[in-house]
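Researcher: Please predict.
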Amino acid sequence: MTEKLNQVGLAMLVLFLTVSPAFGWSESGRFSIGVFGGSVNSIVDTAAEGSYTVYPDTEFDGDRVLGGSIMYRFPSEFALELSVERFSMDLEELGVKFGTLNMTPVMLLLKVQGMPAGGTGLAGHADIGIGKSFNSFDKGPLITDLESTYKTVIDIEVDDSFVFELGAGIDLFFTKNFSANLDGRFLLGNVDTSGWGFDIDTFHVSNFQVLFGVRYWH
């Protein structure tokens, strides 16, 4: 996992440095609003563990992510962005699905946001931020079948959690007011869980997202 993480991080750095010459300076601050979607890919070796037990065959199978954000770019290249996204990941062990973890991270990002000279063309951006994810868990067929067989309720709970974000990408400005972007984003964190009836208390949810978005600039 570490080697894969390093390779993706290096690729993002090279991408950012490649497009950085297109950065420019705007005469005044600008607001923008954007929407995005893409894929979620787990970057952890083990999805679940307990206080005394590690479950090496557990994994998260990511699905698509959808989200949106508002941003204010200051007269320099720096910007603040409030981002909200929604995605789900299936918890599996050796192909058996235990359920689905749903996450809704709300993040505040500090960005370096480039603007192309003349208002059109390529630019780039990079961001770092923190936030809180509002989480829930949907039981899978294995758990619901156990509940039905033994006439019981397995009360699985997940806590809300803090998340850390690191990302970079490129922007293509079709006009001064409309752009498209391609991003790579690391979302890092853990989620506390309880109610399993055996030693599971932590989900490792760190993932890498590939995102495509569009943005309107005012």
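Model: The longest strand covers residues 121-139.
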